[in-house]
Amino acid sequence: MASLRSDLAPDTLTVAAGRPPREHDAPVNAPIVLTTTYHETRAPQPGDRIYARGSNPTWDPFEEALGALEGAELPALVFSSGLGAAAAALSLVPGGGAVLMPRHAYAGSLGLAADLAAQGRFELRVVDVADTAAVLAELAALAGRFDAGQVMLWLESPTNPMLEVAELTVLTDAAHAAGAVVVADNTFNTPIVHRPLEAGVDVVLHSVTKWLAGHSDVVLGALVTSDAALRERLLAHRTLHGAIAGPFEVWLALRGLRTLALRMERSQGTALALAYRLAEHPAVRRVRYPGLPSDPGHERAASQFNGFGGIVSIELDDVATADALVAAVRLWLPATSLGGVESLVERRRRQPAEPLTVPEALVRLSVGIENPDDLWEDLDQALRRAAGGEVLPELTASRASREAGQLS
Ligand SMILES: Cc1ncc(COP(=O)(O)O)c(C=O)c1O
290-324 pLDDT, tens per residue? Predict the structure, then answer.
């Protein structure tokens, strides 16, 4: 791959990183390489590709681009899924160690950690990650019971779907002082909004499935670190456990990454506008979005992040109203997942694995890149129908404001 200046802005890196070298007649895009094996004309040497469970040239440009975007000194590692990446990250905890996780981390990450804990691999503790004092107390208690290198602090900020915001630098510093390794799931923010490695985090995790790939058509994961020894271990885990990505999926993810900055700008702009309107909506009991000044995570998000992301969670009066909302949308798609160009809506507790502390009537909105007024109009009519009211004449107001160029 061609090397790039590391001081380029993230939106430039999304486009420029991971390109083939500038040679006459070379393609501007990396090819998809479909092979299981490589010619061997001498004895294998370190760095040789050898076999495609260990290495595929199609992974390289994506890994280089994501590493550069996260501000890492090393290329990322792409995995078959976000949870495949999570399994590799958790493998860094030595047997008999401990993992401290947000109680509202992504349910799949919690489920995986709980499964490993049930098998006796490590002790799992969960904490309210927005409660800095509680996390510090847990870390101190673990430091008293475990040796340095035995504990992992798992961060997710904002959390999925409660959108709680952690004090990343404070928690990371405390974890390091306690001899813990720190992993941060940066799926919600993406490196456009925040780069956890700059806060001192050791390993960044992505469900590439979401915003990075951005089109709801590939399942992939990634880990990013600047620590060569950790990267070696994660790479060894990927190869030995076979959690590898298909070349076509990775090629699609790199293609999606090229527009990440534009998509995030659009999604988070619309998310903020919708959050303000939802906060005023009579059918909505509570809006969770760190971009709202009234949100408990607002100050932290404003000081740490370069934006507030494209996910908004709303709480309705009861489960029936929440289900009715999901059933009543016509433009928003009722589906799980998030981070694609299309807007999705889901009552999270429909998923049996969701933590019971997530309110039953909480609906997560993944804001896509459609026209913001169309999104609002659909949400508004669905909310009104869900709340049992008539479809009121004000429904036409947002279209009128769009025509007048007044989109908020
Ligand atoms: C925050 C977060 N992390 C990790 C994952 C797991 O990623 P994947 O579905 O690609 O395995 C998800 C999936 O929803 C997620 O939302």
Answer: 999 999 999 999 999 999 999 999 999 999 999 99
Digit-coded pLDDT (tens) for 201-211: 999 999 999 99
CB atoms within 10 A of CB 120: 9
Contact in structure between 58 and 30 (CB atoms under 8 Å): yes
Of all protein residues, whose CA lies closest to atom 8 belonging to ligand 1? Answer: 82
Please write the tens of the pLDDT for every residue from 14-26. 999 999 999 999 9
Matching residue, tokens 């620590």: 227
Q: Return the sign of the alpha-carbon dihedral for residues 295, 301, 306, 308.
A: negative
Under DSSP, is residue 37 helix (H, G, I), strand (E, B) or coil? strand
CA of 1 to the centre of ligand 1 (A): 29
Q: Are 110 and 356 in contact (CB under 8 A)?
A: no
Q: Is 82 in the pocket of ligand 1 (CB under 6 A)?
A: yes
Model confidence pLDDT, tens digit, residues 242-294? 999 999 999 999 999 999 999 999 999 999 999 999 999 999 999 999 999 99
- pLDDT tops 60 at residue 223: yes
Closest ligand 1 atom, CA of 83? 11
Q: Give the domains, in start order, of the chain with CATH numbers.
A: 10-257 (3.40.640.10), 260-403 (3.90.1150.10)
Query: How many residues are given for the chain?
Result: 408
Distance from Cα 383 to the centre of ligand 1, integer Å: 28
Greatest Cα pair distance in the chain: 76
Q: How many CB atoms lie within 10 A of CB 183?
A: 30
| Residue from 210, 219, 244 whose mutation best tests the ligand 1 pocket (most atoms within 8 A of CB) | 210
Contact by Cβ (8 Å): 161, 362: yes
Decide whether any atom of ligand 1 lies within 6 Å of the 343 Cβ: no
How far, in whole angstroms, is CA 41 from its chain's centroid? 42
Q: Provide the 3-class DSSP secondary structure of residue 290.
A: coil
